[in-house]
Write a structure and sequence with these properties.
Pfam families: PPR (PF01535), PPR_2 (PF13041)
Number of helices: 43
Shape: elongated
Number of strands: 2
Protein name: Pentatricopeptide repeat-containing protein
Strand order of the largest sheet: 1-2
InterPro entries: PPR_At4g14850-like_plant (IPR046960), PPR_rpt (IPR002885), TPR-like_helical_dom_sf (IPR011990)
GO molecular function: RNA binding
Structural class: mainly alpha
Radius of gyration: 36 Å
Distance between the termini: 122 Å
Keywords: Repeat
Length: 733
């Protein structure tokens, strides 16, 4: 009678009242002890459970199999390895080792500690394994990410004549989704054959499997088979939509859950906030934030992390995300990483490093994404000392050094010009992928080391790393920069054979390559092969036409681009204004320049003003060109003065040329091009004495390394090129 009352107390009045009743019981047997101990375990009070077990043993009461299985569950939860092995010794000593209940508890304990092989040995030793023990072992293998072994064990289970239950299929569905849709359908079919009733737990597992296999339509069909829903099922549906990049459908599912009367939990809110981040929608994110506060979940770490991520991705004001972060009681590594990654994406790189230091001071260890984000920040501020410090920290602490961190270091060192360091990091990486080599090749291209970029190709081949579209595009870019038609054609052939020709970055690279190599037929054919040309495709075609003197065709291509519904960008206008400059189409060039703001809502940058000055200067409209410089909203640079100085050379305007040279040298006193253009202007207007003085000034400032062969070039801005109009030599007395 007392034991029945004790059970009633634990179920209806809570474990504390049950313990009080237990302490007042005059006589207690193993059932009494086990009842309270089980109540502690179910309520998550594992430390009290172990303390009660110690008291039970001290009192002389002998435990039964159910007592010991509960104790093992507490050992698993608390990570009490020594305590657990002591219980195992007790089990072996008293002949309980073949008991399926205790065997299952031991398997579960070892698997949660990561000792899967030991768990399997225990399972193999069991003579009379039941459904629970088989399911526990399958669960252990799934937990260890040994999905194939879990599915094979199920086959052995069938051969042994042991019937699976709903929990078996939940674990099998979790394993099957990592082996593809066919395995998942097979498990689903077995579930039907065995006549297992479809409850909300199985529906959730099926929805998860189908959504992971990119079959959301099947996932929804399964969820509609019965009218039974709970918060876990709805959350799985929402997460499934997000995994399949159907963010608005995820939002709709969240609203349907609320309308159905099921209150979202912390996982639901975390998932829907991820959808807000991906859309992105700050307004919706703020609405969800207000509901989180109403639900009293603002202190939940997972929800706080999702809020930080949402504000960082959806808002231009990082203080919103920072305010949420500061409200998290005990930020974990995900909290810190969301903050640091968000700050980096907003360009506050030095602040990101400060937060990283603060994270370390709190004792939170970074994971791979934290490290790759902070390395990116240090690379952008060109801080070799910080990159080296982080690299040393990674080596010293044996931090989470996976391929993403290695790739970030390769990119950082290459971005700082430390190519040898990049190769050294690559050689130390246990695994390398296409991103590893693409990062290096891209950086080499940016620094102008195009031939060195080609050296990456054999290293990739020797490392058995296949090119992807990004790496191939980098190598095509190197070929274009070198105007290497032969290498470019080889890469073109590879793109066709590998199927990478369909990548828009590869196709655009081929258009640019053939244009720069002077093969307009190849450029046009490459352009025509693109199914849906984007603005980069059109820019590449226009650039090739302009650089090869096909001005009329270039401007026709610009018209075709607009007719195709492609919105021109700032690069497009650099090209068409330059085309007008080359074709002496001044009024049309001015019309294009004015249309940037009036028609296309593109704010001209300094480069556009340089092109405009070149356009006017070539046409002899020097005062208009000077007025452009005087009235533009940007602070002039040396290049724009040098451009007008070049025009003064053409039209022999010494006073304006001298003024432009003076202003240019005030900005960049060490630019030899300005001296050369000024000397040429003097030579061109019969002032050889001043030309000699100018060349002498160059020599005195150490700007001429080889005075016997010093050519003067008139620089006029072009599309990644110098338009050399004339050459001359400085004379020295």
């Amino acid at each position: 009678m007392n034991n029945n009352l004790l059970s009633l107390y634990s179920k209806c009045f809570g474990v504390d009242n049950a313990r009080q009743f237990f302490d007042e019981m005059p006589h207690r047997d193993v059932v009494s002890w086990t009842s309270v101990l089980s109540a502690y375990v179910k309520s998550g009070n594992h430390e009290q459970a172990l303390e009660l077990f110690d008291l039970m043993m001290f009192s002389g009461q002998y435990p039964n199999e159910f007592t010991l299985s509960n104790v093992l569950r507490s050992c698993s939860a608390l990570g009490q390895f020594e305590y657990g092995t002591r219980i195992q010794s007790h089990i072996v000593k008293h002949g309980f080792v073949s008991n399926p209940v205790l065997g299952s508890a031991l398997i579960d304990m070892y698997s949660k500690w990561g000792f899967t092989e030991e768990a399997y040995k225990l399972f193999a030793y069991m003579e009379n394994g039941d459904t629970v023990s088989w399911t526990t072992m399958i669960s252990s293998l799934v937990q260890a990410r040994k999905w194939g072994q879990a599915l094979r064990l199920y086959v052995i289970m069938m051969e042994a004549g042991v019937h699976p239950n709903e929990f078996t299929f939940v674990k099998l569905l979790a394993a099957s989704c990592f082996h593809g849709l066919n395995y998942g359908k097979l498990v689903h079919g077995h579930m039907i054959v065995w006549g297992v009733k479809l409850n909300v737990l199985l529906k959730t597992a099926l929805v998860d499997m189908y959504s992971r296999c990119q079959r959301m339509e099947d996932a929804i069909k399964v969820s509609d088979l019965t009218r039974e829903y709970d918060v876990s099922l709805w959350t799985t549906i929402i997460s499934g939509f997000i995994q399949n990049l159907k963010f608005r459908e995820a939002v709709a599912a969240f609203h349907r859950m609320e309308v159905s009367g099921i209150a979202p939990n912390n996982y639901s809110y975390s998932s829907i906030l991820n959808a807000c981040s991906s859309i992105p929608s700050l307004d919706l994110g703020k609405q969800i934030h207000s509901r989180v506060i109403i639900a009293g979940l603002e202190d939940d770490v997972s929800v706080g992390n999702a809020l930080v991520d949402m504000y960082m991705k959806c808002s231009d004001i990082i203080e919103y995300g920072l305010r949420v972060f500061r409200g998290i009681n005990s930020p974990n590594v995900i909290s810190w990483t969301s903050l640091i990654a968000g700050v980096v994406e907003h360009g506050f790189d030095r602040e990101a490093f400060r937060f990283f230091k603060e994270m370390q001071a709190t004792g939170v260890q970074p994971h791979s994404f934290t490290l790759s984000s902070i390395i990116k920040a240090c690379s952008r501020v060109k801080s070799l000392s910080q990159v080296s410090e982080l690299h040393g920290y990674i080596i010293r602490t044996k931090a989470d050094y996976n391929i993403a961190v290695g790739n970030a270091l390769v990119d950082a060192y290459a971005g700082l010009g430390m190519i040898d360091n990049s190769w050294r990091v690559i050689s130390m990486m246990s695994h390398r992928d296409a991103i590893t080599y693409t990062s290096l090749a891209t950086r080499l291209n940016q620094m102008g080391y195009h031939e060195m970029a080609f050296n990456v190709i054999p290293r990739m081949y020797n490392d058995n790393v296949e090119m992807d579209g990004f790496s191939l595009a980098s190598f095509i870019s190197a070929s274009a920069a070198l105007a290497s038609t032969e290498t470019g054609k080889q890469l073109h052939c590879h793109s066709v054979k590998s199927g990478l020709r369909r990548w828009i970055s590869v196709s655009n690279g081929l258009v640019d390559l053939y244009g720069k190599c002077g093969c307009l037929t190849g450029a046009q054919r490459a352009f025509q092969d693109i199914t849906e040309p984007d603005v980069v495709s059109w820019n590449g075609l226009i650039s090739g036409l302009v650089s090869n003197g096909r001005i009329s065709s270039a401007l026709s291509a610009f018209d075709d681009m607009r007719l195709a519904g492609i919105k021109p960008d700032s690069v497009t206008f650099l090209l068409v204004i330059f085309a007008c400059s080359r074709g002496r189409l001044v009024d049309l060039g001015l019309e294009y320049f004015q249309s940037m703001t009036k028609v296309h809502d593109i704010e001209p940058q300094l480069d556009h003003y340089v092109r405009l000055v070149d356009l006017l200067g070539r046409a002899g409209r020097l005062e208009e060109a000077r007025e452009v410089i005087e009235t533009m909203s940007f602070k002039p640079n040396a290049l724009i003065y040098k451009t007008l100085l070049g025009a003064c050379n053409i039209h022999k305007n010494v006073p304006l040329g001298e003024d432009m040279a003076r202003r240019g040298l005030e900005i960049d006193p060490s630019d030899p091009g300005i001296y050369r253009l000024l000397a040429h202007l003097y030579d061109n207007t019969g002032r050889s004495d001043l030309a000699e003085k100018t060349c002498l000034a160059m020599t005195e400032r150490g700007l001429i390394k080889n005075p016997d062969n010093n050519k003067v070039h008139l620089f006029v801005v072009g599309h990644d090129e110098n338009d050399v109009l004339e050459e001359n030599r400085c004379s020295y007395s």
